[in-house]
Request: fold
Amino acid sequence: MAEGVVIRPERDADHPAIAEVVRAAFVEHPEEVAAFVERIRASEQFIPELALVAEDASGVIAHVMLSWVGVEGGSRNKILGLTPMSVRPDRQRIGVGTRLIRDALGRAEAAGEPAVMVEGIPGYYPRFGFERASALGFGSPHPKIPDEAFMVKRLPGYTPELAGRIVYPPTFDALGY
Ligand SMILES: CC(C)(COP(=O)(O)OP(=O)(O)OC[C@H]1O[C@@H](n2cnc3c(N)ncnc32)[C@H](O)[C@@H]1OP(=O)(O)O)[C@@H](O)C(=O)NCCC(=O)NCCS
Reply:
């Protein structure tokens, strides 16, 4: 299991180590995703206290960001989106991602946020309570996203009126949306 792992908000000094973790995790698109992280940080959608690292004695071993995505036609014009999520390959599958996601969801809940959306691995996120977003009435930000990969985690503040069409901010454009 993931022993001695601390989870905390990222700091400026972590940026190079985070970029390394992101590149190593997204081995097929290393520069694209590392640049995506930097664009989110530089955008209005960035939430510093919800950009988190996991670290152990070896340094930064994982990173996740919750930042704003737009909602059209819902009771709020934005909700939290979880992306990107990176665990250093030598620390994958020992529970680090689980710790980081649970921590991020706890912080979102503590901040009074009603929901978190993710475009992610359909076999991974349901264990944290993510459900198909379309079944809750959310519209997908892009037609190429498989329905089962478009998920929302309802938090205690959730109400059905929240549902609307998710609109990704311009920071997502370079990912092909
Ligand atoms: C996907 C990822 C975030 C999971 O984090 P992790 O710390 O490795 O996962 P955990 O240890 O918390 O959970 C392990 C379980 O998650 C599931 N899981 C992990 N990676 C998976 C994947 N790529 N596909 C499907 N299930 C996966 C498995 O059930 C695994 O259990 P197993 O080891 O018994 O098979 C991490 O592997 C990663 O960074 N991958 C590369 C980048 C990426 O794909 N990011 C997510 C984009 S949505």
